[in-house]
Amino acid sequence: MGAQVDIVAEVHQLLDRRPDVGAVLDLKGPFGDFSAFAGALFRSICGSAVGALVAQTYAQSSDVIDVSVRDITQTALRNFEPGGVATTVLFSRGVQAMMGHRVAHQLWTNGDYDMALALKAAFGRVFATDIHPAARIGAGMWLDHGVGFVVGETAVIGKDVSIWHNVTLGSTLTDSGPNRHPRVGDCAVIGAGAILLGDIDIGEGANIAAGAIVVSDVPAYTTMVGAKGRNVGAAKVSFAPARKGYS
Asked: Can you give the CATH number for the domain in which 35 is found?
């Protein structure tokens, strides 16, 4: 409870000190609690309907608040920009994208698939992300920049993971099973532009270098680098009408 109160208090202090910042963000306090603040923030970003749903979802689930608070506080600790939790939650696209995903995921978990997907679409428009609401992401996520982050439906990300922009956790298109996307262990670090594909495990504490293409398991506490294409034979996937040459 204390951390969420501290975040709201620090936001109030910043907006009181710089009301012109609040004007630029179309955000004005006071906010009664974290749920009300989150609703106001997303109202300024995505409009009144989304803001109301965000506020309602946070108000109904203390677990969602706790996870988002850890995302915010851990991002503030790992990021080198000054300003603490207030500037982190107000100015970080990655934090805001994760807050949006937390809400969409909660709705998906509740069985409201249509609204969860609608929120995914709304957040994608403003954050330039595509995070499936079914994807499971542990607390303490630092999504730096956020732009271009793509996560498939069956992906699982552990706790305290750090991910940069333009990262993809996708499928190989050759597997339609329940584990089509990567599983990333706790405390892993994934650099900008990395592409992780398929039913693979990225071990705890592993480092995936910027631009790496990973299609096999990565052991814990190791570093994976490189992106070199090679011919491995006949094409396996096509979305065109049936043609000769595809198996």
From this structure: 1.10.3130.10
CA-atom Rg of the chain in angstroms? 19
Q: Report helix, strand or coil for 131.
A: strand
The domain tally of the chain equals: 2
Classify residue 95: in a domain, yes or no. Answer: yes
Separation CA 86–CA 81 (nearest Å): 12
What's the CA gap between 90 and 58, in Å, rounded? 17
State the pTM of this model.
0.92
Residue 66 and residue 121 in one domain: yes
Q: Which residues are paired to 157 by β-bridges?
A: 137, 184
| CATH at residue 198 | 2.160.10.10
- The pLDDT assigned to 235 comes to 64
- Tokens 């396996």 sit on residue: 236
* Residue 151 three-state SS: strand
Q: What DSSP character marks residue 147?
A: T
The sign of the torsion formed by the CA atoms of 247, 176, 137, 96 equals positive
* Structural domain of 202: 152-227
DSSP string, 20-43: HHHHHHT-----SSHHHHHHHHHH
Q: What pLDDT sits at residue 1? A: 62
